[in-house]
Design a protein that fits this description.
It contains 4 helices and 7 strands. With about 160 residues, the protein is of the alpha+beta class. A 7-stranded antiparallel beta sheet has the order 2-1-5-6-7-4-3. β3 (about 30-35) and β4 form a beta hairpin. The chain binds flavin mononucleotide (FMN).
Length: about 160
Amino acid sequence: MQNFLFNKIASGVYMLGTCDGNKRNACVIDSCMHVTFQPARVAISVLKTNLTTEMIQKSGVFSLSVFDRSVQIETIARFGFQSGRNADKFGGFECPSDSNGCPYLKEQVCGMLSAKVISAIDMGTHLLFVGEVQNAEVFSNRAPELFTEYQRELNSQPN
Ligand SMILES: Cc1cc2nc3c(=O)[nH]c(=O)nc-3n(C[C@H](O)[C@H](O)[C@H](O)COP(=O)(O)O)c2cc1C
């Protein structure tokens, strides 16, 4: 019942990037919203067990790349189906870094933003980070990918 309703709350799909020293990492999230306009702030909810979460806690910075409708399932799988703890997510994959050193995407996305963490709230299984946007760029006018569309496309893939 609760899960059914949560599926009706529209959300996009994002690549969440971060870095800690020379090490970069990224995962996929759908739990993201903008919370204020001036100053521009976003909130993200991330599992404590994700390597990305651990690294954001240390570095206090992250990037968000907003997947558009051209996103390939392989890209979501690369960053969202495996952990940077035991996989090299960037091997053979072009991924620039923002001014904080966080990886982001220029292809398959509407654009990206860079943010600095101003608050972290313990939600039990998750940490809720609020980030202040330092920079944002638009790369395409394609519609953003929606989580429901991603699920539909995933379910229509041949096994
Ligand atoms: C479509 C999709 C949406 C996801 N949404 C979230 C999310 O909102 N929060 C989260 O913590 N993990 C989310 N995940 C799971 C992480 O991307 C996944 O656990 C990833 O392997 C973590 O990688 P890391 O350990 O390298 O950080 C999502 C995965 C997919 C495929």
